[in-house]
Design a protein that fits this description.
Blueprint: E1 3-4, E2 10-11, E3 24-36, E4 41-52, E5 56-62, E6 67-73, E7 80-84, E8 87-96, E9 101-110, E10 115-117, E11 121-128, E12 131-135, E13 155-163, E14 168-171, E15 174-181, E16 184-195, E17 202-205, E18 208-212, E19 218-222, H1 229-234, H2 237-248, E20 256-261, E21 269-271, E22 274-278, H3 286-297, E23 306-307, H4 314-330, H5 336-348, H6 367-384, H7 386-399, E24 404-405, H8 407-418, H9 423-431
Parallel strand pairs: 3-13, 19-20, 20-22, 23-24
Antiparallel strand pairs: 1-2, 3-4, 4-9, 5-8, 6-9, 7-8, 10-11, 11-12, 12-17, 13-16, 14-17, 15-16, 18-19, 21-22
């Protein structure tokens, strides 16, 4: 369904007004960026392969704070293009019929900065003291490239960034090229597996690259003076990978990278094939370790199996929170049941106004959603038993690898896969605001 704002521009998801156009879908983004770190100047070009979902007379892209300087459609100039409300509206010279493949080229430039949303704060391209982070979730992608910013439209990516040679560039996927030319170095990454726009990222800094001994290629981009804190926080990350592979199925991408910025960050940043942490997370306490597990688990729950609508965010965050508890019991800490009952007691004393399956944009990142989502999974585990529960998780990821998912699909899948009637359980945990009791531990 296409919703309309006051400017008659499309919105694909009511949780994120003013983003996304359901009338067309991207299939591949080829990004070519030139970035001056010292001046925060970005010049970019995107070649965007796409398909018309409906008959089109215009194509609406998301682009915030940056100026388009050239646009072509299948190699020819459009009738016109114009910037409106953090969108780029391209009026076609000739209409495109539904099902038609087409190619957009957009050149653009400017000084990128985060985009501020009244519900979700700021997200996007952000300068550090000496470098860049890109935090895409949920609305930051348009701050650095023209896109169709909707989570149900996953595409492959080629991301090339040219910048000063003293900086390391990390982006999604596999490094395909690193080439020094004069006063710049060009880095090219290929993300072949489908990816939602909010998971696309670029990290730029004076990093050193380290290889970790893991069951899949695992890298770390860290400040040279990161010290012993990195090992304290991330030293068991390869073990986490083994544990999650056993519980969730094969790791869904060719490699995994963790970036540690020289700056402190309030929270870690999730993106496909990599996660970004501030230096302040280089600690050995549980509140740091659990977030290392949390972000790694998003590669299964969020990155390969991605929500179709933002109202289903518990399918990402509830699963990642439960993964923290799984790592705790796998690594000799408190059991998932202990964590579940501890957080259940805490949530029972809080306001009961959150409906997990449709929390609203104001509460979609509320900590209660994370914990109640994890508690929902624990209730399923207690009901069906460990063997059936972890078979359910593995099968869910395998079945939806590279695709998009919904709460209704998970509810139906869980009942079918486990052979158990879970309708009443899910109704209580997902559709009603009151916190249900947990089943008794077996």
């Amino acid at each position: 369904m296409s919703l309309r704002n006051s400017a008659d521009l499309p919105t694909s998801d009511p949780y994120l007004p003013g983003h996304g156009d359901p009338a067309w879908s991207a299939t591949h983004y080829a990004l070519d960026l030139q970035y001056d770190v010292s001046g925060n100047r970005l010049r970019g070009q995107v070649v965007l392969d796409a398909v018309a979902e409906h008959d089109l007379t215009r194509v609406v892209l998301d682009l915030a704070h940056l100026r388009a300087t050239k646009v072509t459609v299948d190699g020819a100039e459009p009738a016109k293009y114009a910037a409106r409300d953090n969108r780029l509206v391209v009026t076609l010279r000739r209409p495109l019929s539904a099902g038609t493949n087409f190619r957009l080229l957009v050149k653009y430039e400017g000084q990128p900065r985060p985009l501020v949303d009244r519900h979700h704060g700021d997200a996007g391209w952000e300068e550090l003291e000496d470098g860049v982070i890109v935090a895409g979730q949920p609305h930051g992608a348009p701050t650095w490239f023209p896109c169709n910013d909707r989570p149900d439209n996953k595409a492959s990516y080629t991301i090339s960034v040219t910048t000063q040679p003293e900086y390391v560039v990390v982006a999604n996927g596999e490094l395909a090229l690193r080439r020094r030319r004069g006063a710049t170095t060009r880095w090219t990454y290929q993300q072949l597996e489908p990816m939602a726009t909010y998971l696309a990222t670029v990290q730029i800094g004076r990093y050193e690259l380290r290889e970790l001994d893991a069951s899949v290629p695992m890298l770390a981009a860290v400040p040279p003076d990161v010290g012993d804190g990195f090992e304290a926080a991330f030293g068991r990350q390869p073990e986490m990978l083994v544990a999650f592979t056993e519980r969730f199925g094969p790791y869904p991408f060719p490699s995994y990278t963790v970036v540690v910025t020289p700056d402190d960050l309030e929270i870690p940043l999730e993106s496909q094939t990599l996660s970004t942490f501030g230096r302040n997370f280089c600690r050995d306490d549980w509140d740091a370790i659990r977030l290392v597990a949390h972000e790694l688990s998003h590669q299964w729950f969020g990155n390969t199996a991605t929500l179709r609508e933002w109202k289903d965010i518990w399918l990402h965050e509830g699963f990642a929170c439960y993964s923290e508890w799984i790592w705790s019991e796998e690594s000799g800490g408190d059991s998932a049941d202990t964590w579940a009952r501890r957080h259940h007691d805490r949530l029972a004393d809080l306001e009961q106004d959150l409906v997990l399956a449709d929390p609203g944009p104001e509460l979609m990142f509320d900590d209660r959603l994370y914990k109640r989502g994890a508690l929902t999974l624990h209730a399923v585990r207690l009901t069906v038993g460990d063997d059936a529960f972890f078979d359910l998780l593995r099968s869910w990821v395998t079945h939806h690898r590279g695709g998009t998912v919904s709460t209704a699909e998970f509810v139906a899948f869980a009942g079918d896969r486990t052979g158990t009637d879970l309708d009443d359980l899910f109704k209580c945990w997902l559709q009603q605001p009151e916190l249900p009791d947990l089943p008794a531990a077996s």
